[in-house]
Amino acid sequence: MLGLYSVSVNPEMTASGQDQSVSGAELARILGSPKAAAEFKILRAARHLLASDGLGISMEAIADKADVGRSTIFRHFPSRDELVARALDESLSHFHGQVPGAIAETVGLEEWLTSTVAALHHLQMTAGRGLWQLAAADDRDLPPPIARINKKRRRTRHETTLTLAGEAWRRSGATGPVPKEVELAFALSFSSFTAHSINNDYGADEQDTVRMIVQLLLGLLSSRRQNRTNV
After folding, report:
1. In Å, what is the CA distance from 38 to each residue of 21, 89, 217?
2. Which helix (H) or strand (E) element contains residue 158?
3. 227 confidence band (pLDDT: 50, 70, 90)
C-alpha cells in the first residue's frame, strides 16, 4: 500500500473525474498538509469511479482506488453520500469553470460558437456516468447530500446557459433581453442527453455534430434578431 499522504498529481483532469490541472500554489498547499493530501487522494478516486461506474459506487471501491482504508475515509468525510456529493460538486465546478474563458474570446460569432460548442460538447461526451445519472435523476430518489448538489447543478446550468445565450445574442449584433427560444436552444445544444443520443443513436462524428449545432444556432439567432428589428 502507498503511504497515506503520498500524492501523485496528473496535470490534466476533465469533468469526468480524470485528473484536472492543479496550480503550483494549490499543489504546494496539498503537499504541505496531510489532511489536504488525504482528501485529494480520496476525492480523486471518487471522481474516477463516478465517471466509470456511476452514482452507486461503494466506500470499499473508493478506499481501494485511493489506496487507503475505509476508516481513513471516514476520518475525512462523515458518510459515503457526503463524499460523493463533494466529488460531484468538484466535477461540476470544473465543467462550468470552462465558460468564462469561452466568453473572453475576441473572435466573430461563428468562430466563437464553433469553439464554444466544440469544447462543451466534448466535455459532455467525456463527463462520465455519474454526472449523466445525476442529470437524469429525480431529486426525491437521491440521498439528501446528492440531491442538494443536483439542485445546485440545475441552478448553475440555467445560469451558464443564459450566460452563453446572452453572449451569442450580443455577438450577433442584437440588443435587449435574450429571447426565450434562444436560451432554450442553447440548453438543448449543450445537453448531455443531446450529445450522447446523437453520438450513440446516430453514430454522428463529433465534428459534424458541432457544425450542425452551430448552423442551427446561427439560423435561430439571425431569425430572432430580424424579428426583434422588425417589431
Report:
1. 18, 18, 45
2. helix 144-171
3. confident
With a CB cutoff of 8 Å and minimum separation 6, the contacts of 92 are 15, 131, 149, 152, 153, 156
The Cβ of residue 206 has, within 10 Å, a number of other Cβ atoms equal to 14
* CA nearest neighbour of 95 among 129, 121, 123: 123
Enumerate the domain spans of the chain. Answer: 1-80, 97-230
State the cell numbers at 104: 473572453
As a whole number of angstroms, the distance between CA 131 and CA 192 comes to 9
Cβ-proximal residues to 209 (8 Å cutoff; 6+ apart), any chain: 121, 195, 198, 199
156-173 per-position pLDDT tens digit: 999 999 999 999 999 999
How far apart (Å, rounded) are the C-alpha atoms in residues 97 and 62?
Answer: 25
Burial of 59 (0-12, 13-18, 19+ CB in 10 A): middle
Euclidean distance between CA atoms 159 and 163, whole angstroms: 6
For every residue of 25-46, DSSP letters joined together read: HHHHHHHT-HHHHHHHHHHHHH
Which pTM was predicted? 0.80
